[in-house]
Amino acid sequence: xxxxxxxxxxxxxxxxxxxxxxxxxxxxxxxxxxxxxxxxxxxxxxxxxxxxxxxxxxxxxxxxxxxxxxxxxxxxxxxxxxxxxxxxxxxxxxxxxxxxxxxxxxxxxxxxxxxxxxxxxxxxxxxxxxxxxxxxxxxxxxxxxxxxxxxxxxxxxxxxxxxxxxxxxxxxxxxxxxxxxxxxxxxxxxxxxxxxxxxxxxxxxxxxxxxxxxxxxxxxxxxxxxxxxxxxxxxxxxxxxxxxxxxxxxxxxxxxxxxxxxxxxxxxxxxxxxxxxxxxxxxxxxxxxxxxxxxxxxxxxxxxxxxxxxxxxxxxxxxxxxxxxxxxxxxxxxxxxxxxxxxxxxxxxxxxxxxxxxxxxxxxxxxxxxxxxxxxxxxxxxxxxxxxxxxxxxxxxxxxxxxxxxxxxxxxxxxxxxxxxxxxxxxxxxxxxxxxxxxxxxxxxxxxxxxxxxxxxxxxxxxxxxxxxxxxxxxxxxxxxx
Length: 482
Description:
Elements: H1 2-13, H2 26-40, E1 56-57, H3 71-81, H4 101-114, E2 118-122, H5 125-135, E3 142-146, H6 151-159, E4 164-168, H7 173-186, H8 188-191, E5 197-202, H9 214-224, E6 230-235, H10 250-253, E7 262-266, H11 276-283, E8 293-297, H12 299-308, H13 310-313, H14 320-334, H15 339-357, H16 362-367, E9 388-392, H17 397-407, E10 410-411, E11 413-415, E12 426-430, H18 437-458, H19 468-481
Parallel strand pairs: 1-10, 3-4, 3-5, 5-6, 6-7
Antiparallel strand pairs: 2-8, 7-8, 9-12, 11-12
């Protein structure tokens, strides 16, 4: 059973190691001491075993199910067959030998699909954000960002030459305006447009599943900086393939292609491209390939990246096989072949909301503060839903709920500080095209069964201090360590 494999790995990874390393070099002993801090809290991040299709999947990035169904693999192999003489490696960076015709063609296809002037494929989505934020803002410029932007953006902030780096309250246009007015008062160069501002947001926030009020943010920027020296970077990692006509993303859905300076997409979430499972079959390698990033921008920004973003300048170009996997993933969107999967995700999320809110225990669980889903408000009136649903609970309870789902053969991961803000732990539920209504119903009923038991414990109706599945999980872990 997958639960046993997971708990066995968890038990092994959370055993303290520093005390047994007295005779090892101090360098490694010091590192293990640092890791032991996490092990003491049972919060060590480990290498999870891969599960088979019998486990109910509410966590993977394969949201359109192109990987699970084998569609992306078949299309990928057909694409390779059309180019039997391809060179596997790029053999250099883009400024040297690595800039080949096929790569340029695919980038332009992607740019045209999204209504952008150009596209640039990067080694990872993480590095796409790092490249844009470290390579585009100039000395004296400012970066303004939503407080919940991805960790990759924060890495870019650290490397950026921008003089000012200010955040605003999540999804709050008024808070953004306050920060922009503050910047104008701090530095007249922003008022006269001799210095620039780059606003950094996500289209769909990966831990909260909520949509950026992008049109309102665009309006605020235009009102405060009519000369156009304030522009926007939108991380669309969680909207590609999910939102808009043919899954083009939030920017295209809102018709804001001309208003957004930089868009960042990734190819290994909805598109299931460039993952190790596809290329391992071809290359007889178990190496996991990166989550390739795609930067959409105009040629001015593209050349700025090419000349000032060190993560691009000093990186090799992607190989033919990697670019081919991206191309075939995009073909599913371009040809409309993914639209039914896109629609099924919407049906699944709606069915989950309807099922869980109609359960007899749900209202009590919400009223007591045990569970909540922030994006539930007005869900029946919304035109579309994110595939990411945050199920918030109390501190430490996310671990209890994880065990409960795991022992019921359901895989969804708990999220806690520092991945999410302190005091806001949650289960991050991800819905896919391959999830059936029966699976969605099982997920909802299993969550509510756990909530019922927790409420009995909290109300003093049970002599136990921990829910039954948590006790079972701890017993299994103790057995594995014995």
